[in-house]
Amino acid sequence: MSMRIAVAAGLLLPFAIIPAAQAQSDPIRYAVPLKHGKLRVVLRSGATRTLKALGEGATPVAVSADGTRAAYFRPKDRALVTYPAGRRMGSFGQPGNKVGVDETRLMLSPDGRRLAYFDNDGTHRARVFDTGTGKKIGTLPAPIHLWATGFSGDGGEVLLVKNSGPTTDVIVTDLRGRVLRRDTPPQIVGHNLPEDDSEGTVAALAADGRRIVVYVPGEAPGLVVYDLATRKTGRLLPLKQRPAAATWTGEHEVTLRVTDGKRTQRLRIDVDSGASEVADAYRTPTSRAYHAGG
Q1: What's the rounded Cα separation, in Å, for the pair 131 and 71?
Q2: Which residues partner with 17 through β-bridges?
Q3: How far apart (Å, rounded) are the C-alpha atoms in residues 34 and 204?
Q4: What is the chain's alpha carbon radius of gyration, rounded to the nearest angstrom?
Q5: Over the stretch 164-194, which tens digit does the pLDDT of each residue have?
Q6: Selection from 153, 71, 53, 180 nearest residue 116 by Cα
């Protein structure tokens, strides 16, 4: 039986759950880089798999929110590949061991079907691949002045954040990099958007390509949904724990990853009612880990 936690003023109502067909029978919880070019993949069942992965200072890895796929570079040819299929993405190889190579960034869509590769120098357009075929399907703007927060809930769009000094803009593009929406949100949203990979800020784009959810800290912390089309901000949904990652997993559902340092939980939140359900819980790894969903 799953545990339920009241997130909004004691209100606890049922809501949509991810269809079972969309979930792998034994999904990935997280991946941990080991010494000597190894990567340990930890599954929901507790089983582990050890992969040979390229790591030079850091090991570029991504795990999809649903845990169906991980992406990494294999050492024998420095190719970008996925687990469990082992399919190669494109025909390029990770550059040789130069300054900044370990800053390469990988980003998977929530269902693992799309993968974005951001070059380490930040000046080249990011490549987007179909993980089923390994073929490139588009490019995103160069991240030198933008931060890619993540794919939308259905993997069809990408949320970008641009800090222009006094203001912060949100940009939604398709997988070919074409701008679909652009807006300067109100302060409560704009000041809490992630602008790099530092911890403390999270934002996620819904499958409709319109709504974004943002964590707002402070004396009364919580989640806020902002609609880019109507420019309206929803009510604050109280949340005691600061999330480490957020993903839209349903039309009215956001899944958060939270941790207290000892225990990690994945919470499903209904953004209309504020109801919450613990979807998974496990002991927080003691070393650097790449969790499902970021």
Answers
A1: 9
A2: none
A3: 30
A4: 18
A5: 778 899 999 999 999 999 999 999 999 999 9
A6: 71
Q: Which residues of 35-61 are buried (b: 16+ CB within 10 A; e: fewer)?
A: eeeebbbbbbeeeeeebebbbbeebbb
Strand order in the sheet with 88-93: 62-63, 70-73, 79-83, 88-93
- pTM to 2 decimal places: 0.88
Residue with tokens 């179909």: 130
Check if the beta carbon of residue 263 is closer than 8 Å to that of residue 282.
yes
Is 203 in contact with 194 (CB distance < 8 Å)? Answer: yes
The answer for 230, left when phi > 0, alpha when psi is -120 to 50, beta otherwise, is alpha
**Cα 255 to Cα 202: distance, rounded to the nearest angstrom:** 12
Q: Using the Cα atoms of residue 51, residue 55, residue 59 and residue 61 in order, give the sign of their dihedral.
A: negative
Whether a cis peptide bond, with omega within 30° of 0, leads into 84 is: yes
Q: Tens of pLDDT along 201-257?
A: 999 999 999 999 999 999 999 999 999 999 999 999 999 899 999 999 999 999 999
| Neighbouring residues of 119: CB distance < 8 A, sequence distance ≥ 6 | 104, 126
Q: For 134-144, b where at least 16 C-beta lie within 10 A, e where not — what string?
A: bebebbbbbbe
